[in-house]
């Protein structure tokens, strides 16, 4: 019994380290998104940190249009980054869950 608990604790600690390693790796995974016409481009990490924004000069002439573009493209980029982030971290969490009776909802 005690050995089982220690084994589970070790597995959880190992999973926690894998989660931290995955989070660090996701800082290097880049998500690119751009407007349909290519006038605005945004790059985020899979941890949803903005790395770059490229704005075509024609958008600088219309503040309202630029704001609309930023909202649309940022939301699409954040959604993509979130999907990658959740899939990667979810896979690590699922793989690292110990086999506890009644806790198979994570499998």
From TrEMBL:
It comes from the Bacteria. Keywords: Coiled coil, Cytoplasm, DNA-binding. Pfam families: YbaB_DNA_bd (PF02575). Its main location: cytoplasm. Binds to DNA and alters its conformation. May be involved in regulation of gene expression, nucleoid organization and DNA protection. Homodimer. Belongs to the YbaB/EbfC family. This is Nucleoid-associated protein FLJC2902T_24980. The lineage of its organism: Bacteria, Pseudomonadati, Bacteroidota, Flavobacteriia, Flavobacteriales.
């Amino acid at each position: 019994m005690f050995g089982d608990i220690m084994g589970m604790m070790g597995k959880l600690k190992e999973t926690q380290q894998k989660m931290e390693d995955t989070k660090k790796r996701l800082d290097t995974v880049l998500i690119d998104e751009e407007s349909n016409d290519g006038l605005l481009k945004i790059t985020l990490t899979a941890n949803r940190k903005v790395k770059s924004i490229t704005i075509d000069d024609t958008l600088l002439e219309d503040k309202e249009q630029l704001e609309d573009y930023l909202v649309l493209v940022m939301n699409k980029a954040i959604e993509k980054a979130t999907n990658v982030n959740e899939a990667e971290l979810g896979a690590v969490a699922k793989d690292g869950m110990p086999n506890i009776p009644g806790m198979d909802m994570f499998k």
